[in-house]
Amino acid sequence: MLIVFLVSILYSCGSSSRVTDNAQSQRLEELVSEKHFEIRSDQAMPMATASLNSISDAGLFPPGSSAGQISLIGNPNYLKVTGDSVAIYLPYFGERQMGGGYNHDGPGIKLEGIPDEMEITKDEQKQRYIVQIEMKKATESFDIEVTLFPNMNSIISVNSSQRFPIRYSGTVQPIPSEDK
Length: 180
Known about the structure:
Number of domains: 1
Number of strands: 10
Radius of gyration: 19 Å
CATH architecture: Beta Barrel
Strand content: 35-45%
Structural class: alpha+beta
């Protein structure tokens, strides 16, 4: 009798999490189908190079950060999709591989406009969305892959023609009404 009681409690706890996951998944599906969402990142994960390790060893990163994982809490950043337009502002931590210096926008990644290519696909098996974005700015080109998970978490992977790769983790949400 006790075993049946424990099994029923465990089963009911599991089913309530599926209901929550289903509601979040449905909310994500609405945001993606409307192409009207924003991602705020709380962690940057640059490629840990010898230079970044030196900066980390010198204590120049925020508390709790390392060369491979940097806290973005308190730093403005976003990736917004509004219809066919994309606006991106992400702080960049890493090294340039070649090419020109940083522009007047600073060392961050700042892009705005209609991408050269944007494709949104749904991975039915894993219930997540993959957004592929290709954009150019001056002589630099960016390949950006955004993975949106049903629990509203996200991973942004940025590959550039002039910088080492970097990833960001954060959350997806509706764009606030004042930004529409």
